[in-house]
Structures are given as C-alpha cells and as structure tokens.
Design goal:
12 helices; 78% helix
C-alpha cells in the first residue's frame, strides 16, 4: 500500500510558503538601506512581489529545462490561447463577482487590518497607472503562473473538487493575513475553475487583473467620496454613519450581481463542456495521476495555524 504524501502541487506550495517567509526576512536583513529608500513607493511592492514569486518559478523552469521537459512545463502552466468568447465570459463573470468580493473584504476588515487599504494609503499620490501596475498587473502575472499554473497544473488530473478547493485555500493562505483570506480563497476557487474550463491560464490572469483593477479604482473613488463627505459633514457639525437604506441597497446589488454571475457561469460551462468531455484537456500533463489530497489538506491546516499565529504576533 502506498503511503499518502504531499502531491507535487502541495510540495510546491510548501516551497512557496517557506520561500515567502525567508525572502521577506532576507530582504530586511540583506538590503535594509534599499527597503528604506523604496518605502512608501510602488517599487517596494513590485520588488517584494517579484522576489517572492519569481525565484520558485524560475527554479522549476530551469529544472524542467535541464531535464529536457520544457514541453511539460508549458503544458503545466496551461499556456494556451484564450478564445474571444471565453474572454468575454471571463470579463462578465469577474465584474458580476466584484460586489461579493468587496462585501467579504469589508466583513473581514471589521476584525483585521486591510493591507490593500494600507498600500493605497501609502501610494495615495501615485498616478493611476502605477497603482494598476502595482496592485493589478503584477499580481495577475506572478500569482497566476504559480497558483493556477504550477500548483493547479500538478493537481488538475486528480479529483477536481479537491484540487479546486485546495487551490483556493492555498491562494488565500498565500496572502498570509486573515483579512484577505476569505475573499482570496473564494476568488482563488473561481480563478481555478476559469482555467479548468478554458484550458488557458490567460483566463485567470485576465480575471485577476480585472478584479484587482476594479477593487483599486472603486477604493480610490470611495476614499475620495468619503473625504469630501466628511469635510461637508464636519462643516455642518454632523457625523457620518452608514444608513440602513445604504446597507440594504448594497446587499440587493450584491445579490443581483451574484445571480448574474451564476447564470453567466452556467453558459460559460456549457460552452466549454464539449472540449473537456472529449478526453484530455488542453494543457493537461500526462504524468499527473489521481490520488488522495489528504496530506495537502493537512498542510493547508498547518499553514492556516501558522498564519493565525503570525497575525496575532503582529503589533
């Protein structure tokens, strides 16, 4: 009987998780002057994102190249063209899902600090294109190549439900904070399904970029409105509290948009069903085999426990 062990995707996730911790502390100790100089600029976020996610990917690429398995690496990452129709479905579903993601972010933000808001505060004077490059484009490339590329690529021929759930959980845990975990986990599941049905990582990259870009634009707009409203209320000697009507309106809009997402997803799934039912999917790796993901879920539980302790240890 074969002993249960971490899947390749699970081992790669563990590699990323450990590397993220080591690289963050490594930057602090190895280049404190550089970090101090870049602090409060977009370059610090571009640097940390690249340092955290590029080396593991390059290591895997070099290993496959040396083993003359570059074709497998391309298949692993699901680097395939994305049809115009699937791109349209992806854009629509991402827009429809945005209100729910913002609600989840707002709810978790009641209990834990929001890192994205902190970044926006630090970059409040940055041009819009810098914000979109930092908070939308860069994560859409590096994070998708690692999570919907390598990790899901190593799991997609096993039990689909477990593979999709694990990818979402791993993606949520990658952020290493409890505020982002709920909506990042949910979004990770959706992004994984996009790649599964289309066979192309371009679908998740497109959705990831649009989701982060919309969140950034809406946050900038909301912060501007809040400042203007608070100034007007302060001049009138009043205070601002969200009304029941505003909360009810937000809930109704979220439900309507989520319903539209579900309807669009059904059509999107039906559009791609024939291709996925016809045998091996585009980008599948023939040397992946089904197996138990129990050790991967144990790893996810251990990483969640570490994340909780990490969050509690922060000042």
């Amino acid at each position: 009987m074969n002993k249960a062990r971490l899947s390749r995707g699970g081992r790669y996730m563990l590699f990323i998780f450990v590397w993220m911790i080591v690289s963050q502390y490594g930057l602090v100790f190895a280049a404190p002057a550089l970090l101090a100089k870049l602090n409060g600029t977009s370059y610090i976020f571009l640097l940390t994102e690249s340092v955290m996610f590029a080396p593991p990917l390059l290591f895997l690429l070099s290993r496959n190249f040396l083993q003359r398995k570059s074709g497998r690496f391309i298949a692993l990452l699901s680097i395939q063209p994305l049809s115009l129709q699937n791109a349209g479905y992806t854009v629509l579903m991402t827009v429809f899902l945005t209100p729910l993601m913002m609600i989840l972010s707002g709810l978790s933000g009641l209990f834990f600090p929001n890192p994205a808001e902190q970044i926006l505060t630090e970059l409040h004077d940055a041009p819009l294109w810098v914000l979109l490059t930092t908070l939308a484009f860069t994560p859409a490339v590096w994070e998708e190549l690692n999570f919907r590329g390598v990790i899901f690529g190593e799991m997609k021929n096993s039990d689909l439900k477990q593979a999709v759930a694990l990818n979402g959980i791993f993606f949520g845990l990658m952020h290493m904070n409890l505020q982002q975990f709920p909506y990042a986990c949910a979004m990770g599941i959706v992004l994984t399904l996009f790649v599964y049905w289309t066979g192309s990582i371009l679908a998740s990259m497109l959705a990831h970029f649009i989701s982060n870009a919309l969140s950034t634009l809406l946050s900038v707009w909301a912060n501007t409105c809040v400042v203007l409203q608070e100034d007007a209320l302060a001049q009138a000697g009043l205070t601002s509290l969200p009304s029941i009507a505003a909360i009810a309106f937000a809930a109704i809009v979220t439900l309507i948009f989520f319903g539209a997402f579900l309807l669009t997803y059904v059509k999107f799934k039906a559009h791609n069903q024939k291709r996925t039912d016809g045998g091996q999917r585009d980008g599948d790796c023939p040397d992946n085999h089904p197996g138990s993901h129990a050790p991967d879920f144990v790893l996810a539980a251990a990483m969640l426990a570490f994340t909780i302790l990490w969050q509690l240890s922060l000042p």
